[in-house]
Design brief:
mainly alpha; 8 helices
Length: 124
């Protein structure tokens, strides 16, 4: 019985686990086929990707505590805090930061979200 409840997600937690990969995929789609120089020169894409990262940040705050505990290798606090940077310290958000985040930092959390959702569905 313990393993069945282990993957029970709140509605908000489930929505967060759906929203994170959805926005990570959108961010990747926005930069697909672009070089860094192209991204840097494309204000609209920088803004669009930044919005995706804001949503991911906010969604990370809604991930169930049990899920965060099961995955301590994910920098939950940093992801959540990044939203404050995107919203309040926007002048310090560079195209390089956006590029690195999209290309180097999202794969683990996307895999985690999909795995948690599958396990939750299997427990239902």
């Amino acid at each position: 019985m313990r393993s069945a409840t282990r993957f029970m997600l709140s509605e908000a937690g489930r929505d967060a686990l759906l929203g994170i990969p959805e926005n990570a995929e959108a961010a990747r789609d926005f930069v697909a086929g672009m070089s860094f120089a192209t991204l840097e020169a494309d204000r609209r894409t920088v803004y669009a990707v930044t919005r995706c990262l804001e949503i991911i940040s906010e969604a990370s705050r809604r991930v169930d505590a049990d899920t965060r505990t099961r995955h301590p290798h994910i920098p939950w606090r940093q992801i959540a805090d990044a939203g404050n940077v995107y919203r309040h310290r926007y002048k310090s958000v560079s195209a390089a930061l956006i590029w690195r985040t999209v290309h180097d930092r999202m794969a683990d959390i996307v895999v985690l979200c999909r795995t948690e959702l599958r396990q939750s569905d299997a427990s239902s």
